[in-house]
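Listing 4. Sequential folding, example run.
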Amino acid sequence: MNIGVYIEVSGINTLTASNLIIEQLAAIYPAESWSRSRDIEFVLRHRMMDGKTLLNHTRFLGCTKSSDGVLQIVP
């Protein structure tokens, strides 16, 4: 079919790359994705412990964020 995939992160086009490179990337990317996910989860958990949130407070009824990022209940 000659349908290729361009991987932006590493700049690889599967139509021009060797099969060995594609196989190596296929083995590496799941671990990299898992590691990145764990890093983001770690940061979000620590922000929650500090009382800070990434909440979309403009559409969240009954709460808002203060200037220092702490969630506040609107009476």
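-- end of first protein; second protein begins --
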Amino acid sequence: MKTTLNAGATDLLIGRRRWLALSAGAGLFCRWPSPAAATSVPRAKSVILVYLNGGASQLETFDPKPDAPLEVRGEFGSIATAVGGVRLCEHLPRLARLTDRCTIVRSMSHDDLDHGSATYLALTGRYHPRKSSNPLPGPEDVPSLGAALKRVLDRRSAPDTAVTINGPALVPEIQGPGQDSGVLGREYDPFLVGDLTGGPATWPSFGLPEGLDLKRLRSRRHMLALVDSVRSERSWREMAALGERAFNLFEDPEGREAFDLAAEPEPMLERYGRHRAGLACLLARRLVEAGVPFITLIWNHSARGQDRLPDDADAQGWDTHNDLFDVMRRHLLPRFDQTFSALLEDLEERGLLHQTLVICTGEFGRAPRVALEAKFAGASPGRKHWANVYSLLAAGAGVARGAVLGASDKFAAYPTSERYGPWDVNATIAAALGLDPNLVYHDRLARPFPLTVGRPMSGLFG
């Protein structure tokens, strides 16, 4: 019997045809995982999902093919790692030394080929009704996993249940769908933190204005609650819920401190890097320390910002149609190698990695053939979108150390073993947080939504 959470109905109306399409996109008619599947996943106190916006190439990261022809393997070489027989791209030397703490999955696969809908797939675990397209976010979207977790988890002791850092993900200049609460309403949106590189002025601040203390703020809150109680509009209820979340942070000194990057010593800031990804990773570690269950870290806010800002390292995205080797060599890979390695090392040094599940993935991979595309900027070749196979890296919280799960063929084009999809990643995260992946929650019209539609990836764990 499926676990069920009930909620009241509201005035939100969706037409029958639209609801059927939404249901199909949500996976309501897909297979259900066995409840027993969750028992093979160790518990984690927190999960960090590192999202490589734009689709990082498997061949230039976690699945190089040194014996393939040049037009397949590309310009980069590969290097040995801490695990015998496992090789990574030559531009990931620090991460290569940490492979004995990780599992690499080389058989991720699905069939959505555009950034918008694939972002939706990656962050909700469901196909968008408009597969392989770039739809705008909408109020009828399936909630992101973070929003769904806010719906079903009660973690009042933490600053928030779900936080998104360095977001939202742009594809490449408009917000991709699947990052917010969709049909659940704004009160379930993950807490969003944007660009942190502007110093304290851009860091989340919960200080009170001069002359306003908590006693006066509580009084104002009480009066506002009286006003809100006589309003029935959905927007008012959502704003009231958002106000409640903000007030809770004002009253929680530990929650406020979690966002204060000024508390970090200079060497730690330098270790992670004072760029967008570096500060985002550092904040993620602080939120783990504060007990936040689910953290989505958007590694690069734009899937392909290099077209507009070719020399701005923060603008570079993993959507490397052209100039792949130049962008990766100069910007993407050195920064990823330094900062992601710093995150894993720092978590382990602080005794947090064993209780924190870290998953690094993108929306898909890149084509197993290097080519110049005339319709994209850039003078040197790159790789097209490719969803048939791509890679994922996981660490912490019982993940097997020094392992490879799944395999691709000799060109990194197709899986040669069991395939895994974003739906399985979401099921794994849910199980790691102690939830039944079969759990069903309801929206405001009492319509059922399964928390996940995949199976936990039990092979990840030792």
